[in-house]
Amino acid sequence: MLFTLPDHDTLYHALVTRDDAFDGRVFVGVTSTGIFCRLSCPARNPKPENCVFYETVADCMQAGFRPCKRCQPLNFMAGGDEVMLTLVKALAADPQRRWTEDDIIRMGFDPSTVRRNFKRQFGVTFLEMARLNRLRVSFETLAGGGSVVDAQLDAGFESPSAFRAAFTKIIGQAPGHFVDDAVLKADWIETPLGSMVVISDAKAIHLLEFVDRKALPAELKKLAKMCSGRIGFGRYAVVDQLEQQLAAYHAGQSARFTVPLVFHGTGFEKKVWRALCAIPEGETRSYGELARIIGQPTATRAVARANGANQLALVVPCHRVVGADGSLTGYGGGLWRKRQLIEIERQFTQDLQKRA
């Protein structure tokens, strides 16, 4: 029988009462501390507006949260499995280490078994847990003005070539290709739903994507080509404005984004994206409805493709488009994020109605 995540109020009550009935089925990410816990955690209760609830450990980690040291959700999920428990403890002891399958073999474990068991129990592999953390550390070093070598050392890579190879694979462009006198600058924004890469010029946002989105490397290459490779690290003031609006969004205070945007797409795609921005928060539209809204009722599939080509996540709300039957369909940031975004906006509109 499938488990349906209860509403925010029910889960917050379970957290406050330390209800262990939800252990292993629901976790809470605390945005003010950056950690995630079991609902039975003995730590002091956070404010409700600082709580985001997830169904799996993978969801919590992909959203950028670290496991709580008091309730130890990773140890709890490892249960009596000595192999998983040993690896979880090893990861906690050295979170920035560049773990490999050879390390797993040297510890006397079979990599394929470890990979399969971690994926089944946690929703993410052991090596993936370590990779996202190292990437975040390296990106923050570069964005703060650090050198490629500093970033490489912070991320725990053994050589510059290994760091460049890993960075290129995930982001799509080696760090040495980023320049100082850049037209566009890339930076990192942490959100309750995961780390995001933002690219802007001095006046507007050109790209905002979750770092684990598969299309990110191709999107970054497209922007680099547009500005003759002149992308650098850092941020303009417009990114500070965006970060403030994202914080207000996740806190349930405002679902309105006023930050200037630049659309990189065809005329048809831009028409679809503008229609997406016109969908009120707390509401959804089907692909067919969106096609009719833009005056091209037979272009449902083209609308779906344009929706998927959106590279301004959240601010251009492609998450508000669902299947004709109301079911959640594909979302580049992951269906778990789409579900959370719709829930955030549903709760926001309900709160507005109560105050009205």
Question: Mind explaining what this structure looks like?
Answer:
45% of the residues lie in helices and 12% in strands. The protein contains 15 helices and ten strands. α7 (126-143) packs antiparallel against α8 and α13 (287-293) crosses α14. The chain is of the alpha/beta class and 356 residues long. A hairpin with a 4-residue loop joins β1 (27-30) and β2 (35-38). The strands form three sheets. The chain has a four-stranded mixed sheet. It has a four-stranded mixed sheet with strand order 7-6-5-8, with helices on both faces. Among the domains are: 8-128, DNA Methylphosphotriester Repair Domain (3-Layer(aba) Sandwich); 267-355, Arc Repressor Mutant, subunit A.
**Helix/strand structural class:** alpha/beta
Order of helices and strands: HEEEHEHHHHHHHEEEHEHHEHHEH
- How far is it from the N-terminal to the C-terminal residue, by CA? 39 Å
Major β-sheet strand ordering: 3-1-2-4
CATH class of the domain at 8-128: Alpha Beta
Task: Give the overall shape.
Answer: globular
Residues in helices, as a percent range: 40-55%
CATH topology of the domain at 8-128: DNA Methylphosphotriester Repair Domain
Percentage of residues in strands: 5-15%
Chain-wise SSE layout:
Elements (H helix, E strand, L loop, with lengths): L7 H9 L10 E4 L4 E4 L12 E4 L2 H6 L3 E2 L5 H6 L3 H12 L7 H6 L4 H12 L3 H18 L4 H7 L5 H12 L12 E8 L2 E7 L4 E6 L5 H11 L4 E3 L3 H14 L16 H11 L7 E2 H7 L6 H9 L12 E2 L12 H21 L1
Parallel strand pairs: 2-4, 5-8, 9-10
Antiparallel strand pairs: 1-2, 1-3, 5-6, 6-7
Helix pairs in contact: 7-8, 13-14
